[in-house]
Design a protein that fits this description.
CATH architecture: 3-Layer(aba) Sandwich
Pfam families: Sulfatase (PF00884)
Strand content: 15-25%
Radius of gyration: 22 Å
Number of helices: 12
Keywords: Hydrolase
Helix content: 25-40%
Structural class: alpha/beta
Shape: globular
GO molecular function, one term: arylsulfatase activity
CATH class: Alpha Beta
Family: Belongs to the sulfatase family.
Number of strands: 18
EC number: 3.1.6.1
Number of domains: 1
CATH topology: Alkaline Phosphatase, subunit A
């Protein structure tokens, strides 16, 4: 079923609901609000509930009041994780597994993919907001959030946005829907404020979907002075040197990322995480004040592991962003729903971002897209009704996959039950497990699809559209 027919069938379902008995209408009204909070490059050891020195009381609150997802897997870089989170399908299927969407590429999340926003729109979720970093296509308006099922967008299309100027490659990349928006302030604060405003506006018009994709703590390394001081900023010491790679003429921002640096990269990174956690606290407070916390699902996760030279830490896990080691693809995550889920539970089952769409489909009664999903509903696991499935296999990308006990990473096999830090390759000792996982990987990778490229091909020196108006690229 294509997107148009999927949405049309959803409208028919909503129209038909007008004829349902009162008892069923009451049940319809009980659909939960859904809030998805996504951090950018947050490492395993960058939350205080994992023992970090960085203070994250509000992220910790979600863990304490909900289900901690101890074995939650994503892709090793951000665009693929965002794609799989919204589609329930491996980005391999549409050519997005390996890299991010940059201004120099022409591909993105294909318009034909049914996103979680479109799916929920078919079952009564009238207000569906995307706030923050999109990063799923920069070469056509057909890739933007409004074209992908969201009814409201506030934020930026690019990655690595300047937190203070909101510019990328010399052009303002800050939008309200499709119009350029000049809002002064630190981007993390602006996203938190917008999320609170959305909740205040639509708390009586439930259910809603709110997807908040923070750009923190991704580079450039920029924090507010008051947050830096909370982590010991010394005015008499020098600031960290510019850590971004010199992109020459492509960057076109000689002062890019200079403002907001601390004495050390870890200090700056810590202040950025702290600021994000503050805004998460304000979002949770808005949910509480509007008396909708009981029936609001809140999911928190990172998009991939942290980067050590940009201040992130994945200890004691091995590796980090860009790698398929645990530190690159296993991230902090938790889900809270006071009405239906237990609190203070640590769930050790293998789960991942690919499972969110099918899980939400089961919870809301939405019809899943007919395209083959790679995730599965983890609702019974979250409720504690099912134990971890020892045979479940989750594809991680590039000849790598994980099970409850086993993990294979490009031919190297690890027994995570005994070796969670991936120190001992035992592929020669368990050829049966190697074959099982390689057969699974081969099956998944045989379904690899082509990239969806739209808009003009990039030739010569790149010049971004004014105010990052993607519609100009389609003309």
């Amino acid at each position: 079923m294509d997107r148009r027919n999927f949405l049309r069938s959803g409208c028919a379902l909503m129209a038909g609901s007008m004829l349902l008995p009162e008892r069923l209408l009451a049940k319809e009204e009980e659909k939960p609000n859904i809030v998805i909070l996504l951090a950018d490059d947050l490492g395993w050891n960058d939350v205080s509930y994992h023992g970090s020195e960085i203070r994250t009381p509000n992220i910790d609150r979600i863990v304490k009041e909900g289900v901690e997802l101890e074995r939650y897997y994503v892709c090793p870089v951000c665009s693929p994780t965002r794609a799989t989170l919204l589609s329930g399908r491996h980005p391999l299927r549409y050519g997005m597994q390996d890299g991010v969407c940059t201004p120099l590429t022409t591909h993105g999340l294909p318009p034909k993919e049914i996103t979680i926003a479109e799916m929920l729109g078919s079952v009564g979720y009238k207000n569906r907001a995307c706030l923050g970093k999109w990063h799923l296509g920069l070469n056509s308006q057909k890739f933007d959030p409004i074209s992908q099922g969201f009814t409201y967008f506030y934020g930026h299309y690019n990655g690595a946005l300047d937190y203070f100027t909101h510019k990328r490659y010399g052009q303002l990349d800050w939008h309200r829907n499709r119009e350029a928006c000049v809002d002064g302030g630190y981007s993390t604060d602006l996203l938190g404020l917008e999320a609170v405003n959305f909740i205040n506006k639509h708390s009586d018009d439930s259910p809603f979907l709110l997807y908040v994709a923070f750009n923190a703590p991704h580079g450039p390394m920029q924090a507010k002075r008051e947050d830096l001081e909370e982590y010991g900023f010394d005015h008499d010491k020098g600031i960290i040197k510019h850590s971004s790679k010199n992109r020459g003429k492509r960057e076109m921002q000689p002062e890019y990322g200079l403002k907001g640096r601390g004495n050390t990269v870890r200090q700056t990174y810590s202040a950025m995480v702290d600021s994000m956690d503050d805004q998460i606290g304000k979002i949770l407070e808005a949910i509480d004040k509007n008396k909708i916390s009981k029936n609001t699902i809140v999911l928190f996760q990172s998009d991939n592991g942290g980067i050590a030279h940009f201040g992130g830490s994945n200890k004691p896990l091995r590796g980090g962003k860009f790698t398929l080691w645990e530190g690159g693809v296993r991230v902090p995550a938790a889900i809270r729903w006071p009405k239906k889920l237990p609190s203070g539970v640590k769930q050790n089952a293998v789960t991942g971002a690919v499972d969110i769409l099918p899980t939400v489909a089961e919870i809301t009664g939405a019809k899943k897209p007919e395209a083959q999903l790679d995730g599965r509903s983890i609702w019974p696991v979250l409720k504690g009704e099912e134990k971890p499935d020892p045979e479940r296999k989750l594809y991680l990308g590039d000849s790598s996959a994980v099970m409850q006990r086993w993990k294979i990473n490009k031919g190297r096999l690890f027994d995570l039950s005994k070796d969670p830090y991936e120190k001992n390759n035992i592929a020669d000792k368990r050829p049966d497990i190697v074959k099982k996982l390689n057969d699974f990987i081969e099956k998944v990778e045989s379904k690899a699809g082509e990239k969806c490229s739209l808009g003009p091909e990039k030739k010569g020196e790149f010049v971004p559209p004014k105010d990052w108006n993607l519609g100009l690229l389609d003309k």
